[in-house]
Specification:
Length: 304
Amino acid sequence: MSPSSTPEGSVMTRVRWRARDLMVNPWGKPRFLWVVGIGYVVWTLLPIVLAVLFSFNPGRSISSFQGLSLRWYYKDPSESVWHDPELRQAVVQSLKLAIGTVVIGVPLGVAFAVGTDRWRGRGSGVTNFIMMFSLVTPELIIAVALFLLFINLFRFVGLGTPAQLVGMVVLSLAYVVVIVRARLLSLGKEYEEAAMDLGASPVGAIRRVLLPLLLPATLASAAIVFAFILDDFVLASALSLDASTETIAIKIYSAARTGPTPAVNALGSLMLFISTIVIVLALILFRRLTRGEIPQERVGFPIG
């Protein structure tokens, strides 16, 4: 009997073949990918978990955990997020800018996306390039350009909340356009053409057919813009006027350079909680709105 015919030989042969296959094509099957994925998630979430944990620390230390308390959220009469007027103002300012950007930027982005998708004349390529320009331009360049614009040319706007809002709308517009245009490409023009064949005007087809079909992408882009603007630092800092226009990100950065207390962790945790709630709600609505859609491969034309 040869050694390979024994059970031990069969096991060794299988081990050698698996090792050889692993060396030839290590990424052919998800052997290491799950390890890399889990490692990345742990590496990313561990600092966040620690920051949130220390926001419940009853003491002033951000390195020695002493227990659980809501002192830095609302119980401390002077230094908690709820009672400190500067921290409370930062939360209000961040929410104001995030909500305002969604209210102004998302409708503009949807209109821009529909317009660029339907435009097939001269200049359409340039328009698409200009739209994508803010997506690939570093935010610092946009912030400096807008700062110079508002203090030299558009002095009637000036620095402060209006300037911050305008800058964040400009910055977020491309994200909305990209998401909505992806939905438009999957939908095609068949629904609008069918509506117009049934007697609807072009405007009526857009209002009663296209926009409802774009609602999932609109909600997704609104959630992304809200979460993105809520923790924006570069534009908010460059276009800020005084302490009343400082956002959560600015407060956290300023406190980290001096003597931070767990109130800073509580402030960041609130920002994380708000962003997570918005994203989860948008995901639930997205799944409800897209439930029952027919896959593209089961129909004769793409419907999204």
